[in-house]
Amino acid sequence: MEDGDYNIRRWEDLDIDILVKIFQLLDIFELTSGIAHVCSAWRMACCDPLLWKTLDLSMLRSNFIKIPLEPFVYVDGRSDRTLTRLLKISLSLSRQSIVTLIFHFNLYVSDEQLTYTAERCPQLRRLVLPAWNRIKRTGMCKAIRGWKDLESLTMPSIANPPYLLEEISTHCKNFSELKIMGPCDIFFASSLAALQHLEVLNISHCVLVEALPPPQHKRIIKEIDQSIRQKASRLREFITCMEDSCIMCQRTRTDEGLVRWYKYEEGLWKADEVRSLAL
After folding, report:
1. Contact, 100 vs 126, CB < 8 A?
2. pTM of the model as a whole
3. What pLDDT digit, counting tens, does each position of 186-204 carry?
4. For all residues of the chain together, what is the average pLDDT?
5. In the sheet that 177-180 helps form, which strands lie side by side, from edge to edge?
6. How far apart are CA 63 and CA 73, in angstroms?
7. CA distance 98 to 107
8. Predicted local confidence at residue 158, as pLDDT
């Protein structure tokens, strides 16, 4: 037979929906590896919103060392460049489709990386940001102001909550779920009223601390007092656990309030007592 008798179908002629199905099997590293540059059809498939409802960076970790001064971590430049590259490609392909954004607990995002992301994820509803040592108040506020549809936040310690909760209350009218994964200042209780639409609050296994005037530093709160419970009574779910018999509470205290997740079961940090907060 002559060559013209064959019906050869090229990859770029494959139906876009089929390409999208195939690309859904790829992880974030594979999806951003350059396949969008193969041809126009592949790029169109790579930009399909079905691939970008969730940007899951929970596999990416920073190469860092702890330091005694703020921000208490030093991140290797190569790690920063890898994250920046991944964010730029992902946010370009997603075309503002991202609704859920997940960072690993050892991925230390900078101010610039966070604000760059916020500007390109205006539809974000769920944010998991377990470490923000390198994010300053101005960077966080700028990001929050851009996430007007934000409904759910998982965050680390909340040592100075008023400014954050005020920003969320002002700019995120649908905000309803909050999980804290580190030490929680007791002053947080007096700020609860700012989040009028909050329905779910999970502070289980958190170490509650009360700031004291100098020369004292802080005091560990052993149980939640009535004033906090009263303010939390309007919530649909208020999840707490400070039991001596609880393994996670024991681990939190051993780790001085900031759980060293890397020491424990893989993926444990993603678990949650509230289904909608689990990853």
Report:
1. yes
2. 0.90
3. 777 667 766 889 999 999 9
4. 88
5. 54-57, 100-103, 126-128, 152-155, 177-180, 200-202, 237-239
6. 10
7. 19
8. 66
State residue 1's pLDDT score. Answer: 44
Which carries the bigger pLDDT value, residue 185 or residue 143?
143
Q: Phi-psi category of 267—alpha, beta or left, where left has phi over 0 and alpha has psi -120 to 50?
A: left
pLDDT in tens, 16-71: 999 999 999 999 999 999 999 988 899 999 999 999 999 999 999 999 999 999 88
∠ CA 201-207-211, rounded to 5° = 105
Q: At what angle do helices 111-119 and 77-94 cross, to 10 degrees?
A: 0
Q: Which residue, 146, 199, 210, is CA-closest to 175?
A: 199
Strand partners, 54: 100
Query: What distance in Å separates the CA atoms of residue 101 and residue 127, rounded to the nearest whole number?
Result: 5
Asked if 168 and 161 count as a contact pair (C-beta separation under 8 A), the reply is no
What pLDDT shows up at residue 150? 97
Kindly state the tokens that stand for 187: 């002053």
Q: Could you report the per-residue pLDDT of 139-182, keeping only the tens digit for each?
A: 999 999 999 999 999 998 765 667 888 899 999 999 999 999 88
Q: How far is the C-alpha of 259 from the C-alpha of 94, rounded, in Å? A: 33
